[in-house]
Amino acid sequence: MSTTTFSPSPDCSLCGQNLPAHPITDDSLAFCCAGCHAVFTILSGKNELFDYQTNPLFLQAVRSGLISNPALLEQIRSKKVEAPESEFQKLHFEIGEMWCPSCAEVIRLVLLQERGVRNCVVDYATDLASVEFAPRFISRESIFTIIQSLGYQPLAYDAVRKRGISFDLYLRFIIAAFCSLNVMMFAYPLYATYFEFDDQGVGDLFAWLSFIVSLPVVTYSAWPIWRRFATGIRLGLFGMEALVMIGVSSAFLLSTYELLQGGTRVYFDSMTVVIVFVLLGKIIESRAKFSAKESLFRLNRSLPKRGRKKTEDGSTVYVPAKDLEIGDKIEVRMGETIVLDGIVSCGEGACNESFMTGESLPVVKSCGSKVLGGAILQQGHLTIEVTTKCDESVLHRIIDMVERDLGKKSFYTRAADKVVRWFVPLVLSIAFLTGLVCYALGIADPNKTVNETAVLRAITVLLISCPCAIGIAAPLAESYLINALAGLGAIVRNRGCLQYLGRESVYVFDKTGTITEGVFRVLSGLGSLAEDEKSILKALVERSNHPIACAIDVSVEQSPKAGGIIEEVVGKGIKGIFDGSVYFLGSEKFLRQHGMEVGVVKAQSSEMVTNVYFGKGSGEAIRLELGDQLRPEAEEVIGSLNPKRTVLLSGDGKSCVEWVAKRCGFADFQAEVSPLGKQEYVNGVKSEGEIVCMFGDGINDSPALTAAHVGISVVSATDISIQVSDILLTTDRLTVIPKMQNVARKGRQIIGQNLFWAFSYNVVGICLAIFGMLSPIFAAFAMVASSLFVLFNAQRIR
């Protein structure tokens, strides 16, 4: 770090102001506040200290009140935003062009000063940021503008090209619907002339108007259908688009020929309606479509990108994770994410490995302990020797497994496509044979030649088989099913799972956050403490980030006692001195080491309870029980399910998992299961021919969620498990599960009814068309009627 431009203390090394009583020091430099320190670090790292007063970053920091402000942190802490809890929103985005961790700190401090911003987290290791704000005071665009003014580039998660495609599809549909309505209006006089002689030529006018208005529909609006039809023909694959375009093109060519011959028997209205319905089905399908690309995009962004590597001279430098080699040593400080798997070579700390185990209680790490990339160091300071390369870590293996399974689940075959593959060649063959037989046998309809009869009957077969009903039978019913599930609090992200929902034979549940509430809290013990003891206890825990301390801090309502001296021993407990008396909070072993008496521990009310002790150095300690709680409806819901078996999988210890499994009535359970172990279990059950439904909420559940036929994440789930799940529950009540099953079964029945009707109608209509009992105009009318039938039938899903 260069210091050529700056004088040493007693003045701030950046702004030159007098140093406060407790300055921030960095080697031989001293700073008056955190803002000056962060800005100086950025300018020094970018070699922009020369003439720094004109640097845009420095100027913006001055305007934001970040520089020469020793009371900055206190101002931020005391800042109150008067807005109801429900008004706050969370904004997640990426920030580009960050130079060092101080860049993240500058952005965080600047945003925290803005009115309406309640919390801000900027992670330099992943370039990700999260801002909790009230839109009434500050907008998303304003947040992005502030970040850009500092010289960084915010990028929203949803800044992807798929929006243009969706707009294009909507535009095609709107044009098709508008033109179709007009063509149908023009068709009314044409239908009248079918029964009465038109001596004024009105039919000719409206026939030509229908032709003109239908052109945008058959060209621009139908272009995606034409393109998929051409691709299928080129590859030898016949899908629903093949029947649509064959029927539409037949109707268009026959109507155009009739128009050029001076007739008015045209079918432009039916043709345009077909395209409208098909585009509507596409919109319904795209709105509920599972996007594997977006999921993989977010999964990969969640990985740490940089680590603090130790050099030979003992200094540290940030390097990309992919450049770290086996044997390199990396330094991890409190609150940071461990980049790669390794072994602790120096230091002591407590790591949150919940992404692997699902449990929030940290694991104490010391020299020789193994650590996993992706774990968060909640307390302490570690030096880690890397034991795996970037693409070989446990976290990367989890992501790879998820990517592979997501790729498989992203392929969705529509219900009609399986039948259409053989239906299209069959209909083409029947139409060709119908025309050929009529021509060979010399069959002629009244007022028609043999040639005209052969062509008309062949085209009638194609018109009646045009799968408007088939094309919307499943998508419409699935749309109503998706809406019905959403009304229950279940958002369907992958419509491919609907074919399995309600047919599951094995249910697999994660424990923490799914069967339990996933909230660590004080269950008992606080009632034994006096008011002054609670104040001292509050003072001991209020500055700790250990989950047990945080749970006690939330549970104690008294104000913390001031004036104490507090010392925290990482992973063991907290010691405090108040008014000459020593107080301890921690494990039984920690208190006994300090000569305190711990009474006989009674049998725990459940295996989910964790005991800690609090007391004065000269007295007997009070036991505090903390732990998670079962969801009140868990036992009832598990008992109401009727699959072959229900299984509880957890990374927690055997005694706790066994207690929960027996309490809730699970048929089987497995404890201490790794994330990849959960996936192996699900794949093993699938290989037995079972249909598996997996419930989970954490990163450790994501491989199993993607492997299962139906992966369901709960409302409290992490971003990764939400992204890989097929269904997201927006309610924390498990009672929605039986309701989901019933709705899914009814929806699948109606989908089957719609498809049965659509194909039955086609079979009967084709037979009538073959024997000349159905003219093209009545074939078009029957096609529209069948479409209305499947539409109203789909609305019965509630």
Architecture overview:
By secondary structure, the protein is an alpha+beta fold. It has five domains: 1-78, no CATH class; 164-289 and 413-476 and 750-794, no CATH class; 299-407, Calcium-transporting ATPase, cytoplasmic transduction domain A, CATH 2.70.150; 490-518 and 631-730, Rossmann fold; 521-627, Calcium-transporting ATPase, cytoplasmic domain N (3-Layer(aba) Sandwich). The chain contains 27 helices and 26 strands. The strands form five sheets. Strands 7, 8, 9, 10, 11, 12 and 13 form a seven-stranded antiparallel beta sheet that branches. Helix 24 (702-707) links the parallel strand 24 and strand 25. Helix 14 packs antiparallel against helix 15. The radius of gyration is 35 Å and the shape is elongated. The two termini are 67 Å apart. Mean pLDDT is 76; it is low at 1-9, 160-165, 288-293 and 601-605.
